[in-house]
Amino acid sequence: GKGRQDEGRQEQEPLLEVGVGVKSKETSIGHCSSSVVSVIKWILKALIWVIFVGWVCLIFIFPAPLGDQILRKWFEATSSSIFGITGSLFVAFSGPILIIAFLSIAHLLLSDSTSPQHVRKKAIEPSFGRLWTFPVLVDGPFGVVSAAEFIGIVLFVAFVIWAVTVYTIQNFNFISQFQLPTFLQSSSMLELTGLRFGSIGLFCLAFLFLPVARGSVLLRFIDIPFEHATRYHVWLGHLTMILFTLHGLFYLISWAMQGHLVQQVLEWKDIGVANLAGVISLLAGLFMWVTSLHPVRKQYFELFFYTHQLYIVFVVFFALHVGDFIFSIVAGGIFIFFLDRFLRFCQSRRTVDIISASCLPCGTVELVLSKPANLRYNALSFIFLQVRELSWLQWHPFSVSSSPLDGKFHLSVLIKVLGEWTEQLRGSILNSFEEQNQEMPLLPHSKITASVEGPYGHESPYHLMYENLLLVAGGIGISPFLAILNDILHRVNDGKLCVPRNILIIWAIKRSDELSLLSTVDIESICPSFSDKLNLEIQTYVTRESEPPVEEGKVQKAVKFSIFPVSKGHRLSVLVGTGSNIWSGAYVVFSTIGFIIFVSLLDIYYINHLGITSWWYKGLLFVACMLVSIFVFGGLVIALWNLWETRISTMEEPEEDKNAAELQHNESITSKGTSQENLVTSNNIQYGRRPDFKVIFETVAQSWGHVEVGVMVCGPPSLQTSVAKECRSQSLQRRRNHPIFHFNSHSFDL
Length: 750
Known about the structure:
The chain is α/β, with parallel strands linked by helices. The protein has 24 helices and 16 strands.
């Protein structure tokens, strides 16, 4: 028997050697392919930066004589094509944006092809170093501004000052060539100055729409989430409207001086700019601008929201005002925004199942929404929610409070009652609960039909970049941090790569009833042995109560029930920029190809063939080609994308997972006593006090030592300012053995 065992062992040894050899060969091939992909991605990034820097340099030199010379040579070389001067300007100023978008698609596709481990390792490397996480400005009209954002602001301000200076010198030199009366010199100078302000505003407009393309490949490539990009849109909007207002104002003053104000305002030329179209466009822009100012937007949000739909009037009449060849300078950014807007429209047509809804004791509403397994999101994502029974036009953003590891077929959001819309939503849920208890059919006024846009957010979960996390929340701002906590606990429990090891949560709330928000995370259920692998501490500050309430020891249960238990198949649509890199990339590419095809056919068989020269009409046709290409070519891709989603959905069997997730969520809420007790062991509650961030940061510095600390803030502007000030102070006065604090904001205000 022993001899037979030795023979068997000898026979197995060569097989084991072969197996090890095959495995090592596969590993080496995997490393080789990963290295090749990394090199290609680096080349793509380098190309993108070269194109972007070249584009910015072209914009900077445009006002100077050198820029004029370069453009004249470019026109001589390219204007003989069927597209004429419009094509030349489009390639020079809009082409770089579209090329960067195509290269970004390729980069995102290559990122998908890498192994999950490689992606996670790459995600923990902070992009652009400290530029994005070091707060330079913490007070003032811009709010908290990082070093990278400050550089962007300086560049725009420098461009405006440079362009105004160069154009002013050119205007004086031009007028001095003619012997004109003082009156004509003044009016001519006003018109030339107005023209120059319009030219400068044109380049600001080229950037204006890029930050609000929520799921665009550009934002995803540079990993800037929409809540951050919204600020850039606000800044650019103020600058653009100031320049365009000066543009129109100088012309109006000049025309009034000449006594031709009404005649000039109503003028609509075929050859040249159409003044009336420009006036209409400017008025639409002014309505949007005034209603977007913070005091107006805060008090009358619906007015701000509805007037902002005038962007369609603004864009169309702007094209009628300047014609196709000038409009082509800004067409790239507007085209990308239209692409995103049409995709969002298609996604939002679907109603989404609400698996469950709950009302917590503090009045906060939790909704659990159904999603397909292949729709990706991370713990820092957010969605836009519409409830048709409350409003057909209002969409409200909410941070996701669940982790993608909670379940494949659902995500949840926490909604605090702050205004009329959220109050009506909570009332509808309570009415549905009462009717369900009485076994009555849901009445129309209590029915909830939800639609969702998103999810959007960071391309990479940057909460996994840091081994040490300091999370600062105010009120409902705890929501994304609950998702982060969920995500980290699942990763620790599942043995997945998880960088964070020390987590300190600072939470400021007004009343102790908001503590029920912690019940949405059952730590012991997710990761029973979390304390062995994770150092978690929660410091809660109840600011408007001087002592614990009498009933603090009692467990308050949330009102929990299911809505639409018989509806099936209505999950979040994957028709979103973050849904599939292949399909979203094809959507952008084919829509752009369709635009080029439509413009070519229009130029060959209509404009050039019939000799059409009207500026405003050609501008209208140009915009029409943009929209039709998106509807036809982009719509075809969306239709195929939707069919693919339907096919994938039929292959999935989510009911078992969905019901399990719902049951687990119900147990998480109804057994609040257990989960709350688990969290209390890590929660230090202080009453009648506000957090002293100087003391907190100094304590962290002494206890954690020389480490990288990711500081994340979600709350009102005052809270962000306080934390940013302390981050900046600690960084400027940092000792060698103290931490490096990286400031990250997860807050935005629409």
